[in-house]
Every structure is written in structure tokens, then in C-alpha cells.
Amino acid sequence: MSREDDPVEVWGRRIGRGLGLVAVGVLAWMLGAQLGLW
What are phi and psi of 4, to 5 degrees? Predict the structure, then answer.
């Protein structure tokens, strides 16, 4: 079983990317609020 086939590795990567995407969205929203864009 290689690293790419490991289900924990696959789901860990998916969760990490999802959390990263959420974090970028929150930071962008906070920056926009700080600049008075919305």
C-alpha cells in the first residue's frame, strides 16, 4: 500500500485543503470588512 492509496492520507489532505479554503475565505472577509468594502 503506497502513501497515495492510504485512506487516512487522502482524507487528511481533503480536510486540510477544505480548512485552508475556509481560512482564506474568512481572512478575505475580515480584510474586506476592515477596508470597508462590505
Answer: -70, -25
At residue 2, the 3 state secondary structure works out as: coil
Q: Sign (positive/negative) of CA torsion 13, 15, 16, 18?
A: positive
Radius of gyration of the chain (CA): 16
Mean pLDDT of residues grouped by 10 in the chain (38 residues)? 80 97 98 93
Q: Measure the CA dihedral 4/5/11/12, to 10°.
A: -40
